[in-house]
Amino acid sequence: MYQTILVHQSxxxxxxxxxxxxxxxxxxTSQMLQELRAAFNFLEYSRDVKVIILxxxxxxxxxxxxxxxxxxxxxxxPSQMIKKLYNPLIMDMRNSIKPIICKLNGIAAxxxxxxxxxxxxxxxxxxxxxxxxxxxxxxxxDSGSTYFLPRIVGKLKAFEIFALxxxxxxxxxxxxxxxxxxxxxxxxxxxxxxxxxxxxxxATKSIGMIKSMLNQSYHFNLHEVLEMEAExxxxxxxxxxxKEGIAAFLEKRKPNYLGQ
Length: 260
What we know:
Blueprint: E1 5-9, E2 14-19, H1 30-44, E3 51-56, H2 78-95, E4 100-104, E5 107-109, H3 111-117, E6 121-125, E7 129-131, H4 145-153, H5 155-164, E8 168-169, H6 170-175, E9 181-183, H7 185-200, H8 204-217, H9 222-237, H10 240-250
Parallel strand pairs: 2-3, 3-4, 4-6, 5-7, 6-9
Antiparallel strand pairs: 1-2, 7-8
């Protein structure tokens, strides 16, 4: 079905999307963007999927746009590709009610970095690195990087990262709050699976609401955030998971959440 990505679903409710062009460090093509959109949309509506993992095959996560497809720069109109392919994918990822974990197994550069930042968590191997490399070929950041990055590291640091285009290793990115956790590469699969499994067995309806609330909080003032929290708490308090959580607490047992 797919030619540039791999999709695998586990019985526990974890779906893994793997970028699969290892010979070019999983560089992005138009076909890959179309296949990623199709995969995310399919998994979004699958009742069997509770968590999505995005990773890369081989030594790299994603080297960004495949520059070999942009050789004829005279006829290149970047905005068409960005608006038609990149932007809808980023919006799909952020609007998804399901948590998306980036398993950062190697370099994430340019648009590959944007893909990672669009996820809800980034768990990296010690060999991983991040680079907002757009400036190194005379371009500006796209695919949401100028939205996500300054909200994580602040405007001054974001300008430095964008304008210098330097690569930072996993530990440097961890110190800046760009990624959540760093593990040895030999432990990465196990650690990411453990985190995904914990999310799967949690109150997934509330997790989806948390993701939506965080997205909205970027644009609300304090009063609006307080109102949003109160309204969403009413919704959460009427779920079966809340009733199960209370019952489990009183009965001193582990809750059995159903995402309802």
